[in-house]
Write a structure and sequence with these properties.
alpha/beta; eight-stranded parallel barrel; two-stranded parallel ribbon; 10 strands; globular
């Protein structure tokens, strides 16, 4: 376990129970798990965003929380864990390029199939209308709740895309044409995920041009007036199209949540979801309470750093933005969230064993959620780790006694026969 820096004492012991104790017969899964943590075992976390202005009027009685699409993370395995932790979170796939889905039938199936009982949003990347139509037709067979067009990734110079992603914001009419074609063939509704605007590059002095709200408003108005699209997820930072890495594109451009709130208030016919800079469950509660004009909020990096905190998310949504005050074990109904987390991790352990044994996909993808859990456990209270570990011991003991009882019953029946 030398691949897990900083883990020691009860925290490591609990991490072993939560993840690896459930897979003793699969050393390959354990071995891969030690390889998939990022350098130094840390995930980049961007600064929290500022509080949204209090809404002038409430337009959404039921707000949603979305787990953002993240490359190399939000595959069907992480989505399975997230669904076990929260029945209400809206789960997103990784961005799937239309070209990749159309490469072969086997490739499409591997990329499009979901986890057991999954309800999720498929995000597509592309610009070619015919290919996007074909990708939507393929997706129809997999029962996605929504299809989303990526209009927010930065340029190829930054590791993203030069012919789709955020560059689509430079051509709102062409983007609307693509979206209209997608809606014509898609069974599920089609949506847009974009930024508040784009900048070509960072200035020579290291500064960025001033963000302009009207760039966002004009893009959304043009697209929504020319295509039957009503849901816009807006990352409240501009996208820098060249000279800035994807990770810095998530942190360097300043947060402008007020742009998204203004868009939502001024567009009552649209569903506007805020993305960017969300730092935790308490922040989700704050944003939903202060922004009833928002259809919901979306977070990504926080979920990677603290996946078990999703156990308290449903109580936040049920309370309409009230409820959860912190992270795992810090909520007003912490025992309930601990029970949800315990059950989810136990069930994911069993799922991981089955998936690894099936040989249908890369083992490191199955192991990644276990490492995200152990990463979180390194930073939380040791007493809480012990509570979780004792709970798992008791649950596994109960399961073992049940199996022993069933075995004894079968032996008695054999003797009677």
């Amino acid at each position: 376990m030398e691949g897990m820096p900083g883990a020691s004492g009860p925290a490591l012991w609990c991490a072993l129970w939560l993840g690896f104790a459930s897979i003793p017969s699969n050393p390959t899964l354990v071995g891969w798990a030690a390889l998939v943590l990022p350098p130094h075992g840390r995930f980049p976390v961007c600064p929290g965003s500022r509080r949204l202005p209090v809404a002038m009027q409430a337009t959404h009685a039921r707000q949603q929380f979305h787990v953002a699409p993240m490359q190399a993370y939000t595959n069907r395995h992480l989505r399975t864990l997230c669904r076990l932790l929260s029945s209400q979170a809206v789960l997103w796939t990784e961005m799937e390029k239309a070209d990749d889905l159309l490469a072969s039938q086997a490739a499409a199936h591997r990329r499009l199939r979901g986890g057991p009982g999954e309800r999720s949003v498929l995000q597509l990347g592309g610009r070619d209308i015919k290919k996007l139509e074909a990708a939507c037709r393929l997706a129809n067979e997999y029962g996605y709740d929504e299809i989303n067009l990526n209009c927010g990734c930065p340029s190829v110079q930054s590791g993203g895309a030069s012919d789709f992603g955020a560059t689509l914001m430079l051509d709102p009419v062409g983007t609307a044409d693509a979206l209209r074609a997608m809606t014509d063939v898609s069974v599920a509704p089609v949506s847009v995920k974009c930024r508040i605007g784009t900048h070509q590059r960072v200035g020579a002095d290291g500064t960025l041009p001033t963000d302009d709200y009207h760039v966002l408003a004009d893009f959304v108005h043009t697209v929504s007036s020319r295509a039957p699209v009503s849901h816009f997820v807006v990352h409240c930072r501009a996208a820098v199209l060249a000279g800035l890495s994807p990770s810095k594109n998530r942190c360097v451009p300043p947060l402008r949540p007020e742009f998204v709130s203004r868009l939502a208030r001024g567009s009552p016919a649209l569903d506007v979801t805020l993305n960017g800079g969300i730092s935790g469950a308490a922040h989700v509660r704050q944003l939903l309470s202060a922004g009833p004009e928002l259809a919901g909020v979306m977070a990504g990096r926080w979920v990677l750093s603290n996946p078990l905190d999703l156990a308290g998310l449903d109580s936040v949504l049920d309370a309409g933005g009230g409820g959860c005050e912190g992270g795992l074990g810090k909520q007003h109904n912490g025992e309930q969230e601990l029970a949800i987390a315990l059950k989810a991790v136990t069930e994911y352990g069993a799922y991981a064993v089955r998936e690894a044994a099936s040989g249908e996909g890369p083992v490191h993808e199955v192991a990644m959620p276990l490492l995200l859990i152990s990463q979180q456990l390194q930073s939380i209270d040791e007493a809480l780790c012990l509570v979780l570990a004792v709970g798992i011991i008791k649950e596994r003991g109960s399961e073992q006694r049940q199996r022993q009882g069933e075995g004894e019953t079968e032996r008695v029946r054999e003797r009677e026969r």
